[in-house]
Amino acid sequence: MIRALLIDDDRNHAEGLERALNQRGLITSCTASILEAVRRLQCREASIDLVVVVIADRWHPWLEILHQLQQAAWQVGIGEFPLFLCVSRLNFGTQFQLQIERMGARLVIE
Amino acid sequence: MSSNNSIAAVLNTMDLMLAEARHLRAAGPDFLLVHRFRTPGIDYCEPGEEVFAVLLVQRGRKYQLPLAASQRLIFDYLAHSNIAQSSKQIEIGIRSDAFYQQHGMNAKSGKALVRQIPRSAVREHIKRLHRALVLVFQDANLPIDPRKVLVVTETVSNEVGYLLRATCRWTHLDLTAHDSQRFWK
Question: Which among A2, A78, A103 has CB closest to B18?
Answer without folding.
Answer: A2
